[in-house]
Amino acid sequence: MTQGHAAQIEELATALRQLVIDLRRGDRMASNRIVIASQHSLTASLAPRIIQDLHDKGPGIYVRLRSANLDECFGLLLSRNADLAIVYGVPGADAFAKDYLESVDLWSDRLIPVLRPDLALEVLAGIETSELPIVAYPREVFFGTIMAERILPALAPTTVALPRAETALTIAALEMAAAGVAAAWVPETLAAIAIAQGRLTDLSAVLPVCPLSIRAMRLKGHRGPAEDMIWDQILALCGGKIALPE
Questions:
Q1: pTM
Q2: What residues does 88 pair with on adjacent strands?
């Protein structure tokens, strides 16, 4: 056997050893793989902290996070393309299919109005105006429904909401409010850092808000050990083992 052949055999042996390692790693990831669907605003604010907490308590868990709107999160669950969903709900107004899904409320949140501080001063001062520029949500998305059914009807009779822009993404709405485009209603957990930094002012003292619940959901029925372990860890979060942003 020539020296060249020996080198080729050694390279082949190294490649085979790496293949065995990769196959074993793949088996572990497949058995411990969890897909979590999350509403866009929660993907940006809380989902990374929840996933980190899960990793701290269950090393070896491989999590795939899928960001979607509320209806898409339900669809991913029902089609079994997600094992778990973390979504917003309105307390006392459950719209999910209880025959197929089980859920647990993790924390409370609020949909609050925010605006760039200098512009917010006029609103907070109670200056009489017939128009309030706002960032609107499409009616068919979750927060668009809340705006139409709970927020806008609760405005003062002398106040007329004037949409200046529209987006389905709460993150975009928050940034538009910070830029001074118009007031926007966003989850308090999402706005907390910008408010603390002074980029936004909370207008909930003078404008309506809506309470929200942050909940975890999954399909009823048979599940694997990894799914049950993740659900048990999610339930443990209800005991305050992970903190909301302040």
A1: 0.77
A2: 214
